[in-house]
Design goal:
The protein is of the alpha+beta class. The strands form 9 sheets. The protein has an 8-stranded parallel beta barrel with strand order 33-34-35-36-37-38-40-41, surrounded by 5 helices.
Length: 901
């Protein structure tokens, strides 16, 4: 029997299990849909169970499922955030050969959500031997019911249990006679400050050492008496680690804080990362990035991050890694605690905002250059001859507005690209407001090529992009952009910069004004009703005209057909709450990484399609359509090393094999493919295989799966802040592909956008719309630390998309905290709470469902106008009730449906 853990007073810690040694038979225990009995060692021998033992033990027999075993309800005997140590002696009978696992598990039942299971520990058992099973657990939130049970062997194998202990212990293994005090948000890391030497720590591919000082006494602990080093590192992933299996629970968010620094190898700064290695019960491996910090050899720095486990892992290890081989990682302390919930945001103060009012002083230059100063030693003067009309994107925001003066600032004697006209606007800005930027710009003669002109902001010496334009001639060009400030700055300066030194710069009508989004929303609602709705006429027959007015009709839309989807990942679908949200609120999905080449073939010939298959099966089961993202990715940094090492012929073969392997395997499964991602921002394949390769990728993909629509896909197309991917460049790029015979079937706009402004987004859609191809927002996310502002941003993008006739679908790039590529962009918090942005999203989904009720009119008809999609109609006559379902497709003329009553 396992030793009891003694408290400092010498008293034994209390086992919270009742009848733990079966001296009372099976009293207090319950059998989990199987049979059982208690016997002594002598009886066991008589029954053919030969096990040396003192006292009694339980035999659990007639097991038809591996999860069947012995259980005990411990709800009233445990408390949240206490740590419990589990110890049991277990055996098996009826096992013909080999070994089998016995597991200790907690079943956690909640009234308002699905039951979950917490893995505690396991041991491998062979016939005829007792084995010790050990583990620990703690609960941060209290379920309605907590059941401890032992399970595991294959069906038909009897489970033997000699004794079981669940003992409450504080982190220093001290307990008091009053029981175990809750440790609240205590650290789940054992020996976090190395006061117990290196116990519970190990090296991941390297050695670890304990220190009280290093570097001739120059390096000392910042906290406590000791620190550890991971040394003799030969790989960047080598570092110090601790196994935390059984001490972390699924679907709970954890916060990680560490004090780290680096030492040696003449490296002064390097990234140190905290990573979680997770092994699932089916031996799948996952690596979860938690946190990253730039560490130095000069001082300790704090690294912070969060993580959440979706599934029930069989093993979990946290480790530190990152610097190049030869550099030591030093750790002073590591803390892993249940993350405190982030308090909800409060709506930003938008009272008394002068929407549409320019905050730039003397914008029309009536007072010469008053209010302006030159950034750098350039020269400012005022001239005439600039446009009198406001740039179109600003005009769409402002509505009727006075003409511009026709005066402009001429900037000469520019010796650096950043030199130009500037103003300080610190006092005029309000936090959390979205500001639109607008100006006419032009450059002087003498340029050798296109020049990038930028309205920039210096926010406490941080560069903020207010909009860019590429200028290659002597015409005036519109700059349109936006920005928002979410932390109080001490100084904000706006300036116009960009052309090469020596080139004159001209700026006219610079405007910066807060945008009234609600005014825009009113217009968008009207537009949406025009293009996303259709009239319906329900004609009733078989009904006496005298019954018309007594016949009621109720029409409810079940689903809007407009595609709204989300990014999902393999680890997400182990979380039933995540899956429920996806199935309930989205009708399309795209995989985050699982279809990308670096995921499906990380090493040449080593294929992993299981993750994509699992996701595809989930989508098929729930009638969710899928986009294939992506066949290739043109950006150099995303290409796996083995591909980079290939010569031209071998690379061409690998590209062909990728196309053949992927598209034949999933033929007819993906409705769309992003063929070669981000061609405006990368050129890996084109540089190595020639200009034709891009069009050939499209042609081959089309030959292999003619059912899929083939997309181009890129970012910063819609926000005015990147001249490489402005709508004009994107249009030319698509036309070039089409001229080479590429069957481009759709335009993907990723939509990773900051502080969106409707008319700027709409302007890009209008321009791209001239190609006549369907446009999708393929990776939409918005980011703000304030949930209400984030909700506004999301509403801008969703409404602009739905109100534009060229847009045929929207994919969010995720929605669940800790599983998105951008911080502060989630709609659902890590532990499943829907935040303000999520509530806004769901409210819009409801708004885009049409419902109508009334009575049959004198012509025996019922008329309505509704969004395209699936409807249920219920008709109640004086004598009966009839229900029908119909689909309202797109169409210019009313849909006429006959219903026979």
């Amino acid at each position: 029997m396992a030793e009891n853990i003694s408290g400092s007073s010498g008293s034994k810690a209390t086992n919270i299990l009742l009848n733990h040694d079966f001296s009372g038979g099976l009293n207090s225990w319950h059998l989990n849909y199987c049979n059982g009995y208690v016997i002594s060692a002598e009886e066991g021998t008589q029954r053919g169970i030969s096990m040396e033992s003192n006292g009694n033990y339980a035999v659990i027999t007639n097991r038809k499922e591996c999860w069947q075993g012995l259980e005990q309800d411990i709800t009233d005997r445990i408390s949240t955030s206490s740590t419990y140590m589990v110890s049991a002696f277990v055996g098996v009978s009826g096992l013909s050969q080999g070994s089998t696992d016995v597991l200790a598990t907690l079943k956690l039942e909640y009234h308002d959500s699905a039951t979950s299971y917490l893995f505690i520990g396991r041991t491998s058992v062979i016939k005829g031997n007792w084995e010790k099973l050990e583990g620990t657990f703690s609960l941060s939130t209290m379920p309605d019911r907590v059941v401890f049970y032992l399970e595991g062997p294959a069906p038909g194998v009897d489970l033997l249990i000699r004794s079981v202990e669940v003992i409450c212990s504080s982190p220093n293994n001290n307990t008091t006679s009053t029981g175990c005090a809750s440790i609240g948000d205590d650290n789940i890391i054992i020996n976090p400050q190395f006061e117990d030497g290196l116990n519970n720590w190990s090296g991941r591919g390297c050695k670890i050492m304990l220190h009280d000082s290093m570097g001739d006494g120059k390096i000392v602990p910042k906290s406590g008496k000791f620190f550890a080093s991971a040394t003799e590192r030969t790989q960047s992933w080598n570092g110090i680690q601790q196994e935390i299996t059984g001490r972390v629970q699924r679907k709970l968010a954890y916060e990680v804080t560490a004090l780290v620094r680096i030492f040696g190898n003449n490296v002064t700064t390097a990234d140190v990362r905290a990573t979680l290695w997770v092994q699932t019960p089916d031996l799948r491996e996952q690596y979860i990035g938690i946190a990253k910090v730039q560490a130095t050899d000069k001082d300790w720095v704090t690294m912070q991050g969060k993580f959440l486990l979706n599934g029930s892992p069989s093993k979990v290890v946290i480790y530190l890694e990152g610097p190049s081989p030869g550099t030591d990682i030093l750790v002073n302390t590591l803390v892993v605690k249940h993350a405190a919930k982030t308090p909800p945001s409060t709506p930003p103060d938008v009272k008394n905002v002068a929407f549409g009012v320019n905050i730039i002083e003397n914008s029309n230059l009536a007072a010469d250059t008053k209010g302006w100063f030159s950034l750098g030693n350039c020269t400012l003067s005022v001239r005439t001859g600039s446009p009198h009309i406001i740039p179109p994107m600003a005009r769409d925001s402002l509505g009727p507005y006075e003409l511009l003066s026709g005066r402009y600032i001429l900037v000469t004697n520019r010796t650096q690209t950043w030199m130009g006209p500037a103003q300080t606007i610190t006092e005029k800005l309000k936090l959390f407001l979205t500001y639109q930027v607008s100006a006419w710009v032009r450059i002087g003669s003498g340029s050798t090529g296109p020049q990038n002109v930028n309205v920039a902001l210096g926010v406490d010496n941080q560069w903020v992009n207010g909009g860019q334009a590429e200028v290659s001639d002597d015409r005036w060009h519109e700059i349109g952009g936006s920005f928002r400030i979410e932390k109080q700055p001490s100084k904000v300066m706006v300036y116009v910069q960009g052309p090469a030194s020596g080139l004159d710069l001209m700026v006219a009508g610079l405007q910066i004004f807060p945008v009234d989004r609600n005014e825009r929303f009113k217009y968008l609602k009207r537009q949406t009703d025009k293009i996303r709705k259709r009239d319906v006429v329900l004609k009733f027959s078989g009904l006496d005209s005298s019954s018309y007015l007594n016949t009621s009709v109720q029409v409810r839309q079940i689903q809007n057909d407009f595609p709204i989807g989300s990014c999902i990942s393999r680890t997400n679908i182990d979380n039933e709450d995540f899956v429920n949200f996806i199935v309930k609120h989205f009708n399309w999905a795209v995989f985050g990484n699982e279809l990308k080449w670096y995921w499906t073939e990380p090493q040449q010939g080593n294929f992993n399609y299981k993750d994509a298959d699992d996701l595809l099966n989930l989508c098929a089961k729930n009638k969710i359509e899928t986009r294939g993202h992506c066949i290739f990715w043109e950006v150099d940094g995303t290409v796996q090393q083995w591909i980079k090492s290939l010569n031209k012929n071998d690379l061409m073969t690998a590209v062909q094999n990728r196309l053949t392997g992927l598209l034949n395997r999933y033929k007819g499964k993906f409705r769309h493919y992003d063929v070669n991602n981000e061609m405006l921002h990368g050129s890996f394949y084109q540089d190595r295989l020639g200009k034709d390769i891009r069009a050939n990728m499209f042609k081959t993909a089309n030959q292999l799966d003619q059912s899929a629509t083939l997309f181009v896909n890129d970012y910063h197309v819609e926000d005015g802040c990147d001249t490489r991917s402005c709508p004009e460049k994107y249009i030319q790029h698509i036309l070039d592909l089409q001229e080479q015979g590429a069957p481009v079937g759709g335009i993907g706009i990723q939509g990773h956008i900051d502080s969106p402004v409707g008319p700027i987004v709409c302007s890009a859609l209008d321009k791209l719309g001239i190609l006549g191809l369907p446009i999708w927002f393929t990776e939409l996310d918005v980011s703000s630390i304030n949930e209400y502002v984030r909700a506004d941003d999301l509403e801008v993008m969703l409404r602009e998309a739905l109100a534009h006739p060229a847009v045929e679908g929207i994919m969010l790039w995720g929605f669940w905290e800790l599983f998105m590529s951008r911080d502060n962009s989630h709609l659902v918090n890590a532990e499943g709470d829907i935040n303000e942005a999520g509530k806004r999203f769901l409210a819009l989904k409801q708004e885009w469902l049409s419902h109508s009720h009334g009575h049959v009119d004198e012509q025996g008809q019922f008329n309505l106008r509704g969004f395209h999609g699936t409807y249920n109609v219920e008709v109640v006559t004086p004598s009966k009730k009839v229900s029908k379902t119909f689909v309202l497709d797109k169409g210019d003329s009313p849909l006429v449906l006959s219903i026979d009553l």
